[in-house]
Fold this sequence. Notes:
The structure is a single chain. The termini are far apart. Helices cover 41% and strands 11% of the residues. By secondary structure, the protein is α+β, with helices and mostly antiparallel strands. Helix 7 runs parallel beside helix 10. The strands form two sheets. Strands 1-4-5-8 form a four-stranded mixed sheet. Strands 2-3-7-6 form a four-stranded antiparallel sheet, with no helix packed on it.
Amino acid sequence: MDFAFGPEDERFRTEARDWLAEHFAGPFAALKQEPGGHPGEARGDMTARRAWERELGTGGWIGLGWDRTDGAYGNRAATLTQQVVWAEEYARAGAPGRLGHIGENLLAPTLLAHGDSAQRARFLPPIARGEELWCQGYSEPDAGSDLAGLRTRAVRDPGEGTYRITGQKIWTSLAHEADWCFVLARTEEGSQRHHGLSFLLVPMDQPGRIEVRPIRQLTGTSEFNEVFFDGALARAEHLVGGAGHGWRVAMSLLAVERGVSTLVQQIGFAQELSRVVRLALETGAAEEPVLRDRLIQQWAELKAMRWNALRTLGAAQNPTPNPARDSAARGPAPNDARDPAPRKGAAHDLPPGSADPQAPGPRDPGPQDPGAPSVAKLLWGGWHQRLGELAVQVRGAAAALGPARWTAGRPYELDAFQRLFLFSRADTIYGGSDEIQRTIIAERVLHLPKESRR
């Protein structure tokens, strides 16, 4: 794949850079991103961050690269390289983590693939305008890495034509800010595992029927939440992909975490690494041979991740027929024997590559390397965690001190490197734990003997 930036890409870069210079200013400048944390982390003025989403939407910068088969939804067209250009300029400007990334990068491609025209017309324009935020209702206390074990139920009311949802979801990013939630729930009585699940779009503003409880983390913030549904209502026309077909839709959603998203993530990683290197030079830690070697190794591994992402992205854009690979990618229908062993509460709400491949949907991409998402997750999760450890190590004893004296009113002040260290402890768990990713690679790529499920 030729990934060089051409003249059109550079013109696009100039447009993006000029727009950010003009608009990421004034009241928005206070939102400038620091290293560490997570895109949805509950830091900064949420009112200002929502306003920034709307500013991006007005500029047409949300939804770059969406499938335009049925027309545009308020976003601008962009090639794959232009999407990377925008991500580079956004990161370079220090613009804040996106509150709308779940709706833009997960739900929207899923609706384009599996939603009907009415669903696309209702939900995509508000996402593109930055007006409606989404969260994901997948993981449960007893169905984290073992997502097929979920117990949340949705019962159809034959009279009203609505679904009433009862159950609990956990590790739900941004549920405290979201306007809507896409919920995977069991709609067929007596069904088990992957069968009888449905994918529902649920409004979050239902007092007495939906309760959101923030989960306080090591960083002192609470962007993850528990969500309790007590008869929450979802309209029948907001069922995506048909009743009982939720597993296929849900797995398609996880598969749309495209290579370009990995490249975007790596741009942020590169900025974090640069700050750690500068810190090592300022403190003199770079003179210590072992630390210097670790800094060089972090740099080399980041380069390797970038080339792996480009290779994977190129293969997806220009697939070469490979009967053995394509057969492995399609795989047999899911069953209990192929599931990873249950690990209660072990996964965050975005477990890429943690489930069996399904038959392609209406606009699903064709067969792809079934192990690529798992390899990518293992690479970046461990890398980022080691970077957090390195950031603390180069500071030495000073890493134990906060940026300001703690008081009763502000008892939990952390600097950017401390947040990076603490939050990255979760990198090998959320998004599909390392154990699950290794099981996927072992069983579905290397075809090693399957783990006992007893």
